[in-house]
Amino acid sequence: MVMHTDKIGDMIVVECEGTIGNAYAAARLRDAVMSQAQLNVVVIDLSEVDSIEGAGLAVLGFLQRWAHKNQIRLKLFNPSRIVRNTLKHAGSSFEFEIASLEEAMALLARADSEMRWLHQGNEVRHSA
User: Fold this and answer.
1) Cα distance between residue 33 and residue 14, in whole Å
2) Coil, strand or helix: which one is 15?
3) DSSP assigned state of 82
4) Total structural domains within the chain
5) To 10 degrees, the CA torsion angle through 49, 53, 56, 58?
């Protein structure tokens, strides 16, 4: 699995590509999300994921529980039909929130706006 992360303000976007199947790939995804401090939103982009297997499902379930416990919004974005079917058949214990394109864009815009506001506030404080 190939993975890229982008932190925008209090949000992280984790873009995954390939298969989330073995324990190594699942652990990388878990570590990428949990290594970030001060998160309010986690978006896991599954648009380029071919399949997700047991270890991948387990880590998504773990991240879902971790996010809920820590009052973090966890959203899955654009899973392929195969991945969506796998998530659907995973059982009732896995009820993931899947963000629409509009919702994902709104989350990105909000995080970007907050980051700019914080950056401008720091510039004002530093220049005074």
Assistant:
1) 8
2) strand
3) H
4) 1
5) 150
So what's the pLDDT on residue 119?
53
CATH of residue 92's domain is 3.30.750.24
pTM above 0.85, yes or no: no
Residues present in the chain in total? 128
In the sheet that holds 98-99, the strands lie side by side as: 2-8, 11-20, 41-52, 73-77, 98-99
Tens-digit pLDDT profile for residues 85-108? 888 887 656 678 888 778 877 877
Average pLDDT value for residue range 57-61 = 92
- Residue 120 DSSP symbol: H
Rg of the Cα atoms in the chain: 16
Domain limits for position 116: 2-127
